[in-house]
Structures are given as structure tokens and as C-alpha cells.
Please model this.
Amino acid sequence: MAELWFNPASLHFQTIHVRGKTDWISFELADADGVSGAGEITSTQLDRDVAPVVARLANKLRGERLTSDEDVLHLNRLTPADLEENVLLASAISGLRCAVADALAKRAGLPLHAYIRRLHGHSGDAPAAVRLYANINRSMLPDDRGPMDRSPESFRKMAERAMADGFTTAKCAPFDECRAPFPQIGLPHAAAPGLDRVRAAKDAAGPNRTLYVDCHSRFDLNSAFDIGEELKVAGAGWYEEPVDPIGDTDAMRQIHARSPLPNAGAEKGYGVAVFKRLIEDDVLDIVMPDVKFCGGPVEAYRIGIELEPGHPGSVSMHCPSGPLSLLASAHATTAFGNVLPLEHAVYEVEWRREVMEPFEEIRDGEFLIPDGPGLGARVDPVMVETHGRRWEE
Ligand SMILES: [Mg+2]
Model:
């Protein structure tokens, strides 16, 4: 494996307009022999353009023989500590590491998950089917015509649709009206509509299926304890990010110490060390590395392999993005033998599965990994032409 190398010579970007403020942005690095690797840099969680940063970092790779995805860091003289502090840079590096790992796996003639496992000395194949949970939230964000219905009834219908499609776990982010600090101590009045949405979605899921609740760091120490109690009564399965576990670690640790539900979070963390600290210092029960921020699929695998043996069910990959990210995440998560499901943002756009070539296959709540080398699928240039644009750097 060590003698495999990839010499990136060209770079192009592509964007696909999904709906409202969402565009799926990705890029491809290619060498002179036509071997290529891809990474997604959709920036809906950043509101900053990652493409110029990718272009700048990729310049340092041209003409070099890359033998590992980590060469992206070394050649740019960056350390994991630099990336822990800078989410924009972490996103660009994660995309590039994904693209290089994809290209090297193609060189090895192996699916990415098998390449990652061989690289780390694991024998045996990982399952090619990965259990997903349905994040229904993005399907109710504004589309090109304007705001969508975010009533409890609308949450109920989306949760019902996910269950009818075979998912056994859904997730919502219901607290639109909340933003700490609040005028009162304890349960904020502004949380009432969000709790109604949770109850409606949980009612649709029923007692035997699970509803995770994401709070998008909208609470604080004064409100988070009561929100946790209310979510427990409403039957939620986990309590995600009442505060930002990376930016506000002390508050999150205190909330976690008294939380009646498992706490999940840390979607913008980079590197094994950050996630390990959050679990070992009792800040969270479940860390959520995102392939777009955490360092890409190889690093996501390392996070899983580091934490899962000692803390089973402590890693659930975060993925509110496009089909390229979901594909890379599925490779990483199956490679480390995930216990918890992988996130999938459902029902954002009806033609989603056709974005990839071959098509994205999701059946009965499971993602089916294509069996070709590398990621095993690419963003279809015809879909880029129809729904977006392509540009060179
Ligand atoms: Mg989240």
C-alpha cells in the first residue's frame, strides 16, 4: 500500500443548487493518468466559501507524489492543532484528505472502506450496508419559493414519512424560537412550540422507534437542565448540543452531569484528540464527527476505532450534507464497525439519488455502498450541468 501514490495535476469545483440557501459544493482532483478523487465542501454550516481555501492548499500538492491523505497537512505545514482552531481550514483540509484517500483507494483497486482497513492492518471486510437515521429538519427549511410549514403537524408528517420509508430513527431540530439568554431561569417560554414539535414527531415514531433532538446550541446553563427533563418526558432518544460542546465545554460538562438523556454533539471538531477528550472528560456520551470537518473519512475511521472499543455506541457520524459526503461517511463508519446509525438529511430534493453516478441507493433505512474502487461513485457531470455549474482553479 505504501508504494501507491497520487500526483494531483488538476482541480475543478462543481456546485449543485438544491433548494433555498442550500448548494452542494464539491471538487475533484485528478492526475495526468485520469485517476481522480473527490471531496465535498458544502458550507451550509459555515456561511463561508471553502473553495478558495481548497484551491490555495491544493497548489502545494501539485507535482508531489502523495502516498497518504495526511500528506495534505504535511505539504501545507499544518498540524492538527492548527485545524482545531479554524473550522474553515479544517473543512478545506477534510475535503482534500477525502479526495486523496479516494484516489489512493482507486490506485489500490479497493473500495475506500477496504483501503482504510488494510491501511490500519485490519483483516476482513466491513458490511456494505450502513444503517441511517433520518434527519427531517432540512426538508422543512425554506425552499426556492420561501418558508415551509414548521408546525408540529408538519413535523409529524415528515416523521411519519421517514418511518414509512423504513427508518427506525428520526431526528429534528425544533427550537426555532429559542436563543439564550432567556428572560427567566428554568424552562424558557420560547421553548413551548419546539416541545410541541418534538411531541408530534415522537408520536409519529411511536414507542418502539427513536427520535433524536438537536438543539443547535440555542440554550445555556440556566435553561438546559429543564429542557433535558422535558425532552426525557417527551420520549426523546438523545439530547444534542444544548450548548456548543467545543466552544462551551465547561457548561456542556455540567449539563451532561445531570442530563437524564444521552448527550451528543461536536459536529465541527477536527481530529481524534478533540473527540477523545470530549468522551474521556465526560463532556458527551456520543461524539458526532462530520466527514466535512473532522479530517475526512480516514480520520473519522480513526476516531471510531479509538473510541468504540472502550465506549461502545459513542460515535455517530454527522452528515447533514449532500450525497458525496454521505457516501464518504458510509465508508468510514462501516470501516470502524459503527454501533450507532449515520445521519442522513432526507427529503431536501426529490432528485437527490440521481446526483450520483451510479445512483445513491438507500433501502429500508440502509445505505448501500457501491462496490467500485475508491468512493465507488462520482457526482454526475450531467446533473451539474442541469442544476449547477462547474469551474476550474
Ligand atoms: Mg447537530
